[in-house]
Amino acid sequence: MASYNTISGLKVKYLSADPANPEDGQVWYNSGTGKLRVASVVGTGTWASGGAMSTARQDGGGFGTQTAGVVVGGETPARTTATEEYDGAAWSTGGVYPASYTSIGTAGTLTAGLGFGGGSPYGNTTTAEYDGTNWTAGGSFPLSYTAMGGAGTQTAGLSVAGDAYPTSPRNSNKSFEYNGAAWTAGGDLGTGRYATMSAGTQTAAATNGGTGPAATLTEEYDGSSWTAGGTGLQPQSFGGSSLNGTQDDWMTYGTNSPNYAFTQGYNGTSWSTRPSLATGRYSSAGAGTASAALCMGGRAPAFSTATEEFTAPIGTASITTS
User: What is the pLDDT of residues 194-239, one digit of tens each?
Assistant: First the structure.
């Protein structure tokens, strides 16, 4: 499990007052009270309806945050190049993706996004970078894959597993790292899979679910090798879109499973049940964090424009030492 300073790479801030909107896990020193403070999720959180997407789709790629989210590609049911951007209330049209693909691997933010691979219907080697307006070509992906998990940023991205069809075996155990210009091989997963869900950074990532024997398995990445994590509560897979949670604080939802509304969260060791989606669906796209997430589109069972927002209240507390 990654430590806080490994994930953030930041020193504890010295502030005169508590910040107005701290992030889950954020630590700071309040000089006014003379106390070391930490923010953490309080309560279980809830899902609520957000603005409807312009285009109903499944197997889109998702990235960004709850108030600056992006969905790209997917099936409408025709494959699409359309990108849409979310501001926390409504969707607007974004840049056109280079080709009509489903299950694009994704990472990054609205103004510095990354897309790679995807199906047309088979995998491809496309990499594209997004600046919030336009998609431009990036370094070619090493293999023709679709339905990869994605994590990290535009300049420090991570591709996880993937569908190598028509090559055999179809379930890939490969990971690749992106530096903003080119891809290089990362560590091999213990179990090959595709349509896995991934979160975290290039050096502290986690993935869960996917096809076949990996349906409930979690693996964690330290930048060089993968190790086994906690076992998920039910089979999970939904096309490989990424979430922006951390290795030890993220969620999965909107999946191909017996309970399409099922939500579960990971704390770096084990999985626990979180509040269910209001509308069960599969092959949805995800973005955001474990305390401020987006679920976008999917099948319910028709192609859906539905957006749901998950919010968990964050409280603060003083840290004491003895």
Answer: 999 999 999 999 999 998 788 899 999 999 999 999 998 888 876 5
DSSP β-ladder status, 226-228 and 218-221: antiparallel
pLDDT tens for 11-20 read 788 878 877 6
Sheet-wide strand order for 68-72: 61-65, 68-72, 83-86, 91-93
Please state which CATH number belongs to domain 56-311. 2.120.10.80
Report how far residue 57's alpha carbon sits from residue 285's, in angstroms, rounded to the nearest whole number: 9
Q: Which pair of structure tokens corresponds to residue 220? A: 């964690």
Tokens of 92: 């607007």
Mean pLDDT (the chain, rounded): 89
In this prediction, residue 5 carries a pLDDT of 44
Element (H, E) at 7: helix 4-8
3-state DSSP of 46-80: EEEECCCCCCCCECCEEEEECCEEEEECCECCCEC
Residue type, 112: A
**Rounded CA separation 33/18 (Å):** 10
pLDDT for the residue 235: 83
The H or E element containing residue 308 is strand 307-311
CB atoms within 10 A of CB 52: 14
Express each pLDDT in 118-152 by its tens digit.
998 899 999 999 999 999 999 999 999 999 999 99
- CA max distance for the chain: 62
Dist CA 281 CA 304 (whole Å) = 9
- Distance (Å, whole) CA 232 – CA 244: 19
**Domain ranges within the chain, ordered by starting residue:** 4-42+313-319, 56-311
Closest CA to 290 of 241, 259, 251, 319: 251
Let me know: does 202 contact 188? Beta carbons within 8 Å.
no
Residues 6 or more apart whose Cβ sits within 8 Å of residue 57: 71, 73, 74, 75, 76, 80, 82, 297, 303, 304
